Amino acid sequence: MDIIDKLISFFQKPKEDTKNDTPEGLCPVCWGHQQFDGKIRFLLEDKQIDINNHKIARPFFEEIITKHVDGVKLKEAVTIPCPDCNNSEDKHNSKEEKTKPIKRTKELQPLSREHHHGLLLCWKIRQGIKLNVEPERIKKYLDWFWMSYLKPHFEVEEKFVFPVLGNESELVKKALVEHRRLKRLFETEDDPYKSISLIEEELERHIRFEERVLFNKIQAVASRLQLLQIERNCSEKSFYENLSDPFWE
Q: What predicted TM-score, i.e. pTM, was given to this entire model?
């Protein structure tokens, strides 16, 4: 069964039966965030489309996949790769890293989705530098992002996720060192151009470490009780963009 057939089979099921599931072969972190889930369901429920007629359904899904399933779509066709998917050809990904997509446990998925916004922040910084935006404008946005999203994200990880491995774990030690380093970079008022450049580089590296190494280890060893505790305390926070100064456009 190829990916088209798997998608057709998935959407033929009642919505309540697939609420917390992901179609086989697709990234659980990306799924539902490419802004096509509701549209597909609406179209499949339309009487003009026979979901049992694969000759009709297959071209529809092929078009959807061609247009949408290749990362998180932004304006002007810019794509921010999912930290769990393997589409990225950027400098941070070696050939060894391009393995099959990571199956992220649902208790950690909210935090992984927050990592998307961290990667998007790195892209915004690169765009701002490319467009010769004044560092002070970028720094103002970084201050907002840090206080609104990233600082609380770090606090939740340190309080509820890292304890699964314990503070003596070398992986946890590495993550904590990177948290402290990023905290200093976000909160410094010296040389904004240098700090924003370092944030772009180090935040992306940190996210990839957590997604590809640390979270994999945590979900592999966590007990059911620990996962339930993470789920209770790591509910996803809706992201509301700050468009007071979209310097990246």
A: 0.65
